[in-house]
């Protein structure tokens, strides 16, 4: 099985800060990497698919990059509504594993 | 409007069975792979299973193989998860999700349905 490792596990940042979350796969997954945002008691929401494609209606301050084993989610200017937990997921090979999550708090 | 509505959750004893359903609307259900994803209380997301458009291909996480069965009825626009031999560690909110293409992301999610396995 492909293991997905996210870092950091949590972070606290101010409005307007640039935030970066990383995700590492245990083997090459090409560009089959997705990013989700989840708020408490809500279903996850797709932000980025295929490593760098922005899902419809997602603000352009979110961006993704990477290929192979190393990937990054960047929030260019953190907004108050960006709190929540962010997960990466590989969709290269079943089981389609998720990373452990990164909890983002607004200072 | 795309909608996925899960049902069938609840409290069940260890060793028991439960069948989750997911009613889909607002899109052509038979055109999409579908997935189940779960989240134990206070924990992260865990992908459970997926199924191809015509039901001919199914995949499972190792921890549920032989106990859970994913299925679908395209005539009823419905996805199912039959869960047998339930264990305490299966306690979670179960989400159904629409998959965007082969090797695609879960691009639309239901609201989730809680399954509690406890005596």
Give an overview of the whole structure.
In chain A, 0% of the residues lie in helices and 49% in strands. By secondary structure, chain A is mainly beta. In chain A, a hairpin with a 3-residue loop joins β5 (45-49) and β6 (53-54). Chain A is globular and about 35 Å long. The mean pLDDT of chain A is 98. Helices cover 0% and strands 51% of the residues of chain B. Chain B is built from no helices and 11 strands. In chain B, strands 2, 4, 5, 6, 9, 10 and 11 form a 7-stranded mixed β-sheet that branches. A 4-stranded antiparallel β-sheet of chain B has the order 1-3-8-7, with no helix packed on it. In chain B, β9 (92-99) and β10 form a beta hairpin. The chains are: A mainly beta (107), B mainly beta (119). The A-B interface holds A 1, 32, 34, 36, 38, 43-46, 49-50, 55, 85, 87, 89, 91-92, 94-101 and B 35, 37, 44-47, 50, 59-62, 95, 100, 103-112.
């Amino acid at each position: 099985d492909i293991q997905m490792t996210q870092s950091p596990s949590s972070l606290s940042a101010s409005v307007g800060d640039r935030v970066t979350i990383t995700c590492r796969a245990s083997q090459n997954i090409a560009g089959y990497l997705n990013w989700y945002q989840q708020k408490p008691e809500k279903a996850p929401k797709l932000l980025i698919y295929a490593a760098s494609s922005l899902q419809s209606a997602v603000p352009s301050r979110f961006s993704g990059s990477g290929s192979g084993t190393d990937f990054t989610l960047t929030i260019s200017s953190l907004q108050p509504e960006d709190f929540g937990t962010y997960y990466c997921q590989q969709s290269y090979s079943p089981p389609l594993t998720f990373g452990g999550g990164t909890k983002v708090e607004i200072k | 409007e795309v909608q996925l509505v899960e049902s069938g959750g609840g409290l069940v004893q260890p060793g028991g069975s439960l069948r989750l359903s997911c009613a889909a609307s607002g899109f052509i259900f038979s055109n999409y792979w579908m997935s189940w994803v779960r989240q134990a209380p206070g924990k992260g997301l865990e992908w459970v299973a997926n199924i191809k458009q015509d039901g001919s291909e199914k995949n499972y996480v190792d921890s549920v193989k032989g106990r859970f069965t994913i299925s679908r009825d395209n005539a009823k626009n419905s996805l199912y998860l039959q869960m047998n031999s339930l264990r305490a560690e299966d306690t979670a909110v179960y989400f159904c999700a629409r998959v965007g293409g082969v090797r695609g992301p879960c691009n639309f999610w239901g609201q989730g349905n809680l399954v509690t396995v406890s005596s």
